[in-house]
Amino acid sequence: MFGFSENIKKSEASESYSSSYSFNNKNKKKDKKSKKKYENISIETLYPKSKINKEFDVNSFNTNLLDIENFDTDKLIKERENREKKLKTVYKKLLGTCLHKIQILNDRDETDMVYNVPQIYYGFSKYEPFDCLTYIEKKLRKKYLDTYILSETKIFISWKNIEENKKIQKELDN
């Protein structure tokens, strides 16, 4: 009886070996086909010569793509100014949310808060949270609120002494 079970185990092992062998042979065939596909990829196949795609070589990167006479520096300046304006509108938007939160907390008889600005702002690579906080701080101090920047993204705001701050500022102006 012991010998019978050994024969079964040997036959199962040989079947699993033969099935794995055939599986591996199929994968090898697929690998050969995929290698043929990748052998056909080259610069010429990716960028064939045409009116739009001229001959592709190392020197093609160094050619002037823009006509020098049509290059406009004023356009560069306008694009930079537009980006700065858009960034300023982001700062104004965050100031608006800060003022809205102050109003809500004031309605609850609270006089202090910590406001967080986002670490990054999607779509604005030049956005800096600390610059945004200094902008918010400057605007809030003009409205006689006490501010203290806690970190790169947090500012403490208090309107507890707003009447006193207003009186002091009027005295300094006179």
Automatic annotation (TrEMBL):
Pfam families: DUF5759
Composition skew (Low complexity), residue ranges: 14-25
Ranges for region Disordered: 1-37
Record field: compositional bias (Basic residues): 26-36
InterPro entries listed in its UniProt record: DUF5759
Protein name: Uncharacterized protein
The organism of origin for this protein: viral metagenome
